[in-house]
Design goal:
The longest helix has 52 residues, at 107-158. The protein is 77% helix and 0% strand. Among the domains are: 27-118, Receptor-associated Protein (Up-down Bundle), CATH 1.20.81; 223-330, Receptor-associated Protein (Up-down Bundle). It is mostly helical and 366 residues long.
Length: 366
């Protein structure tokens, strides 16, 4: 572990106020920080020298303020892990890896393992974002075009049907009602949509809303298998990384649960920790949640635990599920495209039926 240099480089006083938001630091900035810290620690630089270099290279004002605050706390005698714990931007995985590395004197190895883990996580996020880009663009464009038609096109076409005394077909009446609502009360509709989105955002952050949303994610037709594979890939990779650094299995399970995105996987790992503390094997404990952990995971975990190579078995599982996620996300466009085409076809067909139906009804009445 590096020691303070005899010629310490002064870090100017932190500009971090008490109200400073401590979330929202991009993962890419985190990777840059830990990767460069690893290189400088390996080269023999002190904490003070390393943080001085990192602070001067950082352009993100929020991130720079956080680094300055951490540097001051380390200079005053706090460990790096304790200084980082003050900021929720650093996950329990990051702080615990730093703590283990500082205590055992293997901070270089802990940083290497953490950087590799974060780079894989960053790559996974980029793949997910790229796979979702196409359907999001298509759905957004469809929404804009539909609203434009309701405001500028449909009212002019359906104007001729308003004075007809003959009862209009149901699709036409629905289209007239929707078009009238959008054109006559557009501001109210817009405010209601925005308010609904804000309310939904806060609802999802509640424990009940979060659980409900994550349950729907796991049970969704296309999304469910992807969410399950993503969480399995992250779980096996994180748990393997923690075990290789020498963290006890109970602490490794707890910290892995904290970094998973799905609440059901989190609770399953916390329950697994409790079962392991009572003497159960990891394979048997994971097998209690068959809807989350397939047999391949429980069997390989059991074999790895018996052979004393649990970290290696989990690493192989991580590679397997990461490749599964990669293949699934690569084929995401082919999977979602038929659904988007069907959705667009139903929307366009519904509008066409609503416009053409009264014309046929009029022609039959003569």
């Amino acid at each position: 572990m590096p020691t303070p240099s005899t010629t310490a480089i002064p870090i100017k006083k932190s500009r971090l106020p008490k109200w400073f938001p401590r979330r929202g630091v991009p993962l890419a900035d985190m990777v840059f920080f830990f990767d460069n810290l690893r290189v400088m620690i390996h080269a023999g630089l002190s904490y003070n020298q390393a943080f001085h270099t990192l602070v001067t290279q950082t352009t993100n004002r929020r991130w720079k303020a956080i680094l300055e605050d951490i540097a001051l706390r380390v200079e005053r005698g706090e460990t790096l892990a304790v200084a980082m714990e003050r900021f929720p931007a650093f996950t329990p995985l990051m702080t615990n890896m730093m703590r283990i590395g500082e205590i055992s004197g293997t901070l270089d190895g802990a940083l290497t393992a953490l950087v590799n883990q974060m780079k894989k996580d960053l790559t996974l996020r980029a793949k997910i974002r790229g796979a979702l880009m196409y359907p999001c663009v298509i759905l957004s464009a469809t929404g804009v075009i539909s609203v434009g038609m309701m405001i500028f096109v449909v009212p002019k076409i359906l104007e001729i049907f308003k004075d007809i005394k003959t009862p209009l077909p149901l699709p036409t009446r629905i289209l007239l009602a929707v078009s009238g609502l959008v054109t006559e009360h557009g501001l109210v509709v817009g405010i209601a949509l925005v308010a609904t989105m804000i309310a939904l955002h806060f609802f999802i952050k509640t424990p009940f809303g979060k659980r409900l949303m994550h349950t729907l994610f796991l049970r969704a037709w296309i999304l469910g298998p992807i969410v399950r594979k993503i969480n399995l890939a992250r779980m096996t990779r994180t748990l393997s990384t923690l075990l290789r650094t020498g963290i006890p299995i109970q602490d490794a399970l707890t910290n892995t649960g904290r970094v998973l995105s799905n609440v059901h996987f989190q609770e399953a790992l916390f329950a697994t920790t409790t079962a392991v503390n009572r003497g159960a094997s990891i394979g048997d404990a994971l097998a209690q949640h068959p809807h989350l952990f397939p047999s391949i995971v429980t069997q390989m975990a059991a074999v790895g635990e018996q052979a004393g190579q649990l970290d290696e078995m989990l690493g192989e599982l991580a590679v397997y599920y990461e490749s599964q996620v990669d293949d699934t996300l690569s084929n995401m466009t082919q999977i979602i495209e038929p659904v988007l085409v069907l959705t667009l076809g139903v929307a366009v067909g519904g509008i066409a039926v609503a416009i053409i139906s009264p014309i046929y009804a009029l022609s039959e009445s003569f």
